[in-house]
Amino acid sequence: MNAATYTEPRLRHVQCLAPEGLHRMAYWEWGDAANSKVLVCVHGLSRQGRDFDTLARALAREYRVVCPDVVGRGQSDWLKNPASYAIPVYVADMVTLLARLDATEVHWVGTSMGGLIGLGLAALPDSPIAKLVLNDVGPAIEYAALARIGTYLGQAAHWKTVDEAADALRAISLGFGPHTPEQWLALTRPQLVADGDGFKPHYDPAIAVPFRAVTPELAAAGEDMLWQAYDALKCPTLVLRGAESDLLSRATAGAMAQRGPRAPVREFAGVGHAPTLVQADQVAVVRDFLLAASP
User: Fold this and answer.
1) I want to staple 272 with a disulfide (CB 3.0 to 4.6 A). Which of 106, 121, 161, 244 is the partner?
2) Nearest C-alpha neighbor of 63 from the set 264, 213, 245, 286
3) Residue pLDDT, tens place only, 199-222
4) Which ranges in the chain belong to alpha helices (H)?
């Protein structure tokens, strides 16, 4: 294998089925394409697969690392019906992706929405997920955090330069914690797509439609189902939490340590929602968990 195999990803696509028809989901693949040991890393609500570049480079010698752009984001297709931007459709897409990868055993890292997708898939009978990392998300999601995200999700935006976009995205992403300018630009560039004489966010604004339809009552009903899924987990699970997170409370994380898979919880100081898994200490925690021998 040449060095590029481990330092740069390959962009690939898989065709998936939603209620309104077929769509293509993009995914970024790192490491040896023949490696049967697969790590799937799935991003948050308005992000995309290149968020995991740093983590993927750190693990590409041990795994074939696969980082999808969830449908409606990044290089993936947009759906015709906004109502299909929902966890069950995303889980179905990931089942199709795993079939494409011919993966029989999978490790999963999911940030926020990506963690909920992983939870839904790992809780299914005969799931191939053998280890699960839930990054700043759990069965109980604080509604105030959803309201905060709703203030900017799907809003029209246009920036003249990458630097201007980086500044704007930084202002709504303070929970990600401290980053160097170089780290933040690396996280920002894949979030942008050319728009006339500048740039706009690289996702379908319609992903905000079902998100904004969530009421406190719907959130509570969803919480009951998510706890059932969490309690059904059979695989070793790790919970990561930004110590200042407004989405995953310390109480919820504590409950996750006491029930279901009894996941250990690792908190990162100075970080809210959500750790980006760019900083060396965050990468080390994930790497150590994934590569440790299973009990």
Assistant:
1) 244
2) 286
3) 999 999 999 999 988 888 888 888
4) 4-7, 53-59, 87-101, 113-122, 143-150, 162-171, 181-188, 208-212, 216-231, 250-258, 280-291
